[in-house]
Amino acid sequence: MAPAMTAFYDVDARNDPFRKDYERARDLLYTSDQHVAMDGLEQLANSGSIMSILLVADALRTGWVYGQDLPGAEAWYQVAVESGSARGLYGLGLTHLQMDRFSEAIQELEAAFARNYPPAYNALAGMYFRGDGVTVDRERARDLWHKGASLGHLPAKQNLIQQLYWGRYGFWGRVEAVLKLLPFAIEIATVRATNRDTDRLR
Question: Does pTM surpass 0.90?
Answer without folding.
Answer: yes
